[in-house]
Amino acid sequence: MRAVRLLVALAVAVPLAGAGVVLRGQDRDPDIKIAGGGTLPTSWQARTDKNRPLADANIVTMGDGLHVTLGPAVVLWRASDEASGGNYHVVATFTQTRNPRHPEAYGLFIGGSHLADAGNRYTYFLVRGDGKFLVKRRVAGDSTADVKAWTESDAIVKADSAGKATNELSIQVRGGTVSFRVNGKEVYSAKAAELDTQGIVGYRVNHNLDVHLSALGIHKS
């Protein structure tokens, strides 16, 4: 009888696995399909994670900023938006407009280089709807290195029941220290020498999000 039960269990498990019931990573939460994507506003460039199709990213000018409706995660930048030298301050306001399938993140990056190719590097600072932030480095291609893992902060405005939230993110480089701030409050700091801080600055928005991005402020200080 025990052998019969084992055979029945195996007969059920194999078809379920083949049908994709046990899913991981991208298969568990695939990029959604977006209509009207594939083009960029004048002077803007984009790179998707893992070279996913830009056709599934709708990126348009809205006011003095951008509005993004995404399948794949993207970084967005202009060649003219560069911050280098000892001291500078980058700031932008982000408004998430609706609920993703699960909390996904958006924010700023600094120190960008080789952004359009496999050698891309940058430091990024993100928040998400559950009130947590992350600081991380992209070190080449799809490789990343944690600087500060997901951490909760009361400085972050959490998404409401409709998925809406507005947060101002800023990164200040001064005197060899990098300060990461949300809505004017420092949530983390690190030594500039341990991060990528010199180069292009821009936005990073993770997959399946709908977010309004204010104009990017770059201030020398």
3D structure, described in words:
Helix content is 10%, strand content 49%. It has 221 residues and is mainly beta. The chain folds into two domains: 26 residues; 190 residues, Exo-inulinase, domain 1 (Jelly Rolls). The longest helix is centred in the N-terminal third of the chain and has 17 residues. It is globular and about 45 Å long. The N terminus is likely disordered.
Question: What characteristics describe this protein?
Answer:
2 domains, Jelly Rolls, 2 helices, 221 residues, globular, 49% strand, disordered N terminus, seven-stranded antiparallel β-sheet, mainly beta, 10% helix, eight-stranded antiparallel β-sheet, 15 strands
Unreliable stretches (pLDDT < 50, length at least 5) are 1-26
CATH class assignment of the largest domain: Mainly Beta
**Count of alpha/pi helices:** 2
- Proportion of beta-strand residues: over 45%
Largest sheet: 8 strands, antiparallel
Distance linking N and C termini: 77 Å
| Domain module tally | 2
CATH homologous superfamily label of the largest domain: Exo-inulinase, domain 1
Mean pLDDT: 89
CATH architecture of the largest domain: Sandwich
How would you describe the oligomerization state of the chains in this entry?
A: single chain
Shape designation:
globular
Overall SS class: mainly beta
CATH fold-level assignment of the largest domain: Jelly Rolls
List the helices and strands in order: HHEEEEEEEEEEEEEEE
Helix content: under 10%
Radius of gyration, in angstroms, nearest whole number: 20 Å
